[in-house]
Amino acid sequence: MTTIIDIHEVSKSFGGVVANEEVSMSVEKGGITGLIGPNGSGKTTLFNSIVGYHPIDHGSIRFEGEEISTLPVQKIARRGLLRTFQQTRIYGAMNCVENMLISMPHRKMSFFDAFSRNGEEDYDRADALLDFVGLYEKRFLRSGSLSFGQQKLLEFAMALMNEPTALLLDEPTAGINPTLINGLIDRLKRANTDFGITLFIIEHNMRVIMNMADKIYCLAHGRLLAEGTPEQIQNDQKVVDAYLGAH
After folding, report:
1. 202 and 158, same structural domain?
2. Confidence class of residue 117 from pLDDT cuts 50, 70 and 90?
3. Contacts of 69 (CB under 8 A, 6+ apart)
4. Domain limits at 104?
5. Are 31 and 66 part of one and the same domain?
6. pTM for the whole thing?
7. How far is it, in rounded angstroms, from Cα 234 to Cα 53?
8. Cys bridge to 150: 125, 128, 146, 234, which one at CB 3.0-4.6 A?
9. Residue 73 and residue 184 in one domain
10. Are 61 and 103 in contact (CB under 8 A)?
């Protein structure tokens, strides 16, 4: 297996609060890697650092062998490394198709001419991806009228519109109706297998991440506590004490 994201001794503090301390982990190309840990353990901070939102204090973050820790968000995204958020970031007043089109990198330049350069291929791709996530019938609805779970599916489709090489997902199943979760899991797995997208997932739902991930890392108090296969993590007493045992 080839490492696509290599995190080496990364530290990040906010004032006197240490969010990440000498964290090292590697994400294998073409796989699904999980990241778990109690609230406040530094998971989201690490994701933000990987994609450039929070520049690290020291350490190294490499993507496909290239150092990216000093690059801005937009340059990292153009290299094919994207993330989704716990709270969706969609344009509520726009319909689903419009959200898909404006999510494309070259649409960020000017809001007012966001759709002026859209060709038939862009619309076809938007329709196909909305169909992939199960929102084709709702493609002309105002996205703000969708349920929270459907908005998460839309955000996922918007990320796919950019043809990412690797996608970081921050608690993709949080706040979603249980009946939608299995469908989301299926689509995440298909994005991995059919589109070849590497997935790195923060998830509190242990059933979900244990069934999806090839490898799981566990953070606690900003430090790496454990790593291993889902079975190894489930049977690691340190993890049970720090996290799993609290549920």
Report:
1. no
2. low
3. 10, 49, 55, 56, 59, 60, 61
4. 90-163
5. yes
6. 0.90
7. 31
8. 146
9. yes
10. no
